[in-house]
Specification:
269 residues; alpha/beta; Spore Coat Polysaccharide Biosynthesis Protein SpsA, Chain A; globular
């Protein structure tokens, strides 16, 4: 199923219903059957967010669970299905495209494994009243990680510092996957210019937003290791991120020439 067909099926399933909320939470999934239903119900219980699940043909039945949730909560939960594992970045870009076509004003992204606390979503949403992009930050003052082995904690923190230094990003947590965007930001991004597919996608999108002058803020969060299932992190993903930051750094002038953006809305803090 191609991208347009996948998007059409998701939009048609909503039957052009009036949006119940103007906020959408995108949750990519692969083998998250033990987490998905509980997570989606917690997000919906907040009362101000709809949910889009983008499943990469999970063999454990996660896609079917997403369909059942969409049936139980029509107009609030939508499920999109892809033919296989195609990368985190492309899952989010599909979700972004869906969100824009469906008319959402504020779009959020989070992991499916409860490492991102859905209870933080209202704070992220409120932050967009005065900003264009919000980052749920593990390393800003007040943020922290929990239940991580020392090696992973050091690798994550060092990777974020490394990317921030190379790219000149004035942020504490460049690699966070818990983010929110205004519609204006996503409309301005050229998805075709985003090359990252895995872990480095988080870095690249934040960098693209910063390069366009959007106002980025960080909200401290407690990041917990996943409750169930296995981490998708691998050596290949880490290496991709290591190489990508230098490609972004040296491709900066080319990117600016090729994409003459409209006037910016602020500066990152």
């Amino acid at each position: 199923m191609d991208v347009d067909t996948t998007l059409r099926s998701g939009l048609d399933s909503a039957d052009n219903m009036r949006l119940r909320n103007n906020c959408l939470v995108i949750i990519p999934t692969y083998n998250e059957i033990g987490n998905l239903e509980s997570l989606v119900r917690k997000v919906l219980a907040l009362g101000m967010f709809d949910v889009l699940v983008v499943d990469d043909h999970s063999p454990d039945g996660t896609g079917e669970a997403a369909d059942e949730l969409a049936r139980l909560f029509p107009g609030r939960v939508t499920a999109l299905h892809r033919s296989g594992k195609q990368g985190l970045g492309s899952a989010y870009m599909l979700g972004f495209t869906y969100a824009l076509r469906a008319g959402y004003a504020r779009i959020f992204q989070m992991d499916a494994d409860f490492s991102h606390d859905p209870g933080c979503l209202p704070a992220l949403r409120d932050s967009l009243n005065g900003a264009d992009v919000v980052v749920g930050s593990r390393y800003a003052p007040g943020g922290s990680t929990q239940h991580w082995p020392l090696r992973r904690r050091v690798l994550s923190r060092a990777g974020s510092v490394y990317a921030a230094l190379v790219l000149g990003l004035p942020l504490h947590d460049v690699t966070s996957g818990f983010k929110g965007f205004t519609r204006q930001v996503l409309e301005s991004l050229d998805f075709a210019a985003i090359r990252s597919t895995g872990y480095s996608f988080q870095i690249e999108v934040t960098y693209r937003c910063f390069e366009q002058g959007f106002h980025i803020v960080e909200v401290p969060i407690l990041f917990e290791d996943r409750r169930l299932g296995q981490s998708k992190m691998s050596g290949h993903i880490v290496m991709e991120a290591f190489v990508m930051v230098w490609r972004l750094r040296f491709g900066q002038l080319h990117y600016r020439r090729m994409l003459p953006w409209s006037s910016s809305s602020g500066t990152a803090h």
